[in-house]
């Protein structure tokens, strides 16, 4: 069996004017520079240069074949979440991009598995859109790790997670909207430090906010980028839970007893970091991810797993495809 890559992104080659379809304001648009290159724009500002591998199924499949990837989960690029807009506006945007994702994946529907986006700021609309998307062909849903100041333990987001658990819809959590400052706006520091911190914070919210105590064990949820810095600082988290129960000990159990409730991808690049993930969470809680096709992703896909000589053949098979099949329900 080939590798299953649970962390990739898409961008359509075109989409309607969102200020007309969703509402007035600053929206992402696409400046097409050639048949194979484009620039995502936020208003008049350049956001990210992309290539045809963001929208061309044939290009994606060619790369997958070259790197032994059998299936690829194709998720939204977080800049399109529209969590800063009204729920109605974000719902319109989600519908547009979810339908475009199906079009992108259709030429290789046996290889490309689309994940939807939802208007997470509006729980009722989010539940309705994920149901519509799954009925239309989506396999799961990607959500951002927060909506403004609302983390994953916010009542509305918990309602959405309970909805997904009840319907067997896998949830992939991706960090986004990292805080900026003069210190963080250099050297891509928001991506190098902010993304791991955001993911770490959201796993803490799932534990201390009581989400894992309130959501059924059937919830299949995974966090991008190896869970951020969570595995490295689990000992500090555990120590604080026991030593400051007046502030930290609000979950039913210590943090270490929730490690079997979530999974992470393998986008950590270094075998030493992968070893820490496997030793902390277990080999059954790590899945190959690449962040394809973006420059900070891993190429070839699964290279860190290949270099991890501490893995048994069974562990390597689980991380490459077995765990993902369970997560995705395929």
UniProtKB/TrEMBL annotation:
<comment type="pathway">
    <text>Secondary metabolite metabolism; quinolate metabolism.</text>
</comment>
<dbReference type="Pfam" id="PF04909">
    <property type="entry name" value="Amidohydro_2"/>
</dbReference>
<feature type="domain" description="Amidohydrolase-related">
    <location>
        <begin position="4"/>
        <end position="329"/>
    </location>
</feature>
<dbReference type="InterPro" id="IPR032466">
    <property type="entry name" value="Metal_Hydrolase"/>
</dbReference>
<comment type="similarity">
    <text>Belongs to the metallo-dependent hydrolases superfamily. ACMSD family.</text>
</comment>
<keyword id="KW-0456">Lyase</keyword>
<protein>
    <recommendedName>
        <fullName>2-amino-3-carboxymuconate-6-semialdehyde decarboxylase</fullName>
        <ecNumber>4.1.1.45</ecNumber>
    </recommendedName>
</protein>
<keyword id="KW-0479">Metal-binding</keyword>
<keyword id="KW-0210">Decarboxylase</keyword>
<keyword id="KW-0862">Zinc</keyword>
<dbReference type="InterPro" id="IPR006680">
    <property type="entry name" value="Amidohydro-rel"/>
</dbReference>
<comment type="subunit">
    <text>Monomer.</text>
</comment>
<dbReference type="InterPro" id="IPR032465">
    <property type="entry name" value="ACMSD"/>
</dbReference>
